[in-house]
Amino acid sequence: MKLSEHFSIEMRSFRWLLRHERKYTLCLIAHSILTAIVSYVPLYFSSKIIDALVSGDSVRVLVVYVVLTVGLTFLIKVIADAIRPHMDAAFKRAYLNEEWRYSKKAMEMAYESIEDCDIALLRDRIKTESQTGFNLFYLCRTTRNFIFTGTQIICSLAMTLSFFRNSMISIQIKVGIVGLLAATIVVESLCMIKSMKITNTFWDECVFLNLIMEKYNNYVSNYGAGKDIRLYGMADSLIKDMEAFDTEQYRKNRKRSVEWTKANLPRVIVLEILKFTTNLFLIAAAVSGAVSVGSISKYVSGIVKLLWAVAKLVQDTQLAFSNHKYLKRYFTYFDIPNNMYQGTLTVEKRDDVEYYVEFRDVSFRYPGSDSWALRNINLKFKIGEKLAIVGMNGSGKTTFIKLMCRLYDPTEGEILLNGVDVRKYDYDEYMSIFSVVFQDFSLFAFSLGQNVAVSRDYDKQKVIDCMKKAGLKERLETLPNSTETFLYKNYDPSGVEISGGEAQKIALARALYKDAPFMILDEPTAALDPVSEYEIYSKFNEIAGDKTAIYISHRLASCRFCDKIAVFHEGAIIQQGSHEELLADVRGKYYELWNAQAQYYMPEGA
Ligand code: ADP
User: Could you tell me the domains of the chain?
Assistant: First the structure.
């Protein structure tokens, strides 16, 4: 990375910290400046006191110096201590915010980015890097240190300025001290480059190991995996693997510590030599009478502190440079734009509920894919119609629904709602007209009511009605806290476990609660047998009443009650019509699939 890039990342990071964690950053700046200044107060005034004693000044002057020393030190410390709890609390909140930032970003991203496995990997990686200490943690640390050492350098220079201005001190001594400072920077920088390489290699390996460990930990602590782990006797080998990771981590850390110490040895030696030589120079200057007795300690401390601060600045630059590589990746993730076109039109709330949706020559390719998932789809349907989308697995049924709900936009063609391109509608409003139950629906470890209403505040009676309609009447009666009962035991030990079939019914109740004009079932029942799926679909059809309902299945019989059936095959609609019409076409795909699947619906032995 070029120096200019390091600089621009550092600037951006600081602006980012100030914008997202303003309170913490302001406390950090104030606290770092105050704690850096406080040690200079007694140094400055002690030289004044010694000079006043030597020159026989009045007691009053001495008392003023003592009061100023104690008073100023006390005041600065009190202010710094008052800031500290706010800074610590703001730091803890910054950490919580960091977790929340990932969730917020995931929610703001276009759906296609969420499905993109490269983006998912990037997210996992930067999360692990942050847990390893990079990004926010090192950014806070280096920012604090830069402000602290920067203040120390300014104070040290201010304190030693009169030394360099003093015409009685020989030019050789001044040049010698400046030379020593320059030598410190050179030695520090050389050691920094070497130790940076060692540290970077180590951290890269650590991030990789942490990533694997994280996956392992998730796996072994997931109770779903607990069955397989026990039944197949995997515990011993998993424990051995995890112990091997720990040992590997420990071995690498030990190796890095030894190498780092070796690389930094010249730095430590040179710094001590430089401190010693500076002392000698200053004593020589004092002996020759060029500086006052009181000033010796001031200059010695000032120059030693200056050397220390410069060395620390170089070290922190090393840490900041290492972090820049990670921050760059961090910003890459958070900079991912949401390219979905955001329209502004409001979706007309029609009293006559006269909506119609039309797919006009729609084709779609998934991002990064060369093949068409959908090709030249033309389909029109009205509110109140019952539409079935049938076809083999992989024929494009789910993709069709994802486009209709605007999880993706078409690659070619357009989708119209009441004659208007759906991209022109306000995104959230457009989404609100669909209730979809996908095959991979999610339930949360919250209360049942929250799961159905997808909100903390819900209409309890409406939740109960929807659950009853979805076939959960008996189950509801067995629950200890009715709709307040928690699902699973993550947050509540009295939470209930539910079967796969019950989970599907809760997902159906959620779709009913939303009460949207369009109801879509995208094979949430795929794990059930064909007859049970048919029963659920036809029951749902009764509940859906006069709403538009779209049923998706690879099992033709599940949807035979629909007004209109579209047969998908390899991304295209190859047939459309009612069940009877399609079955009448004995050379059609529907007829072929129907006969192939008919055995599942025959009585046994038929
Ligand atoms: P169906 O619902 O009929 O089983 P899908 O709509 O899920 O079919 O898939 C249609 C085609 O698109 C398949 O070839 C599938 O592999 C592909 N596909 C589905 N999802 C993605 C995705 N996220 N990225 C790339 N290709 C996908």
Answer: 3-166+291-334 (no CATH), 356-439+517-600 (3.40.50.300), 444-497 (no CATH)
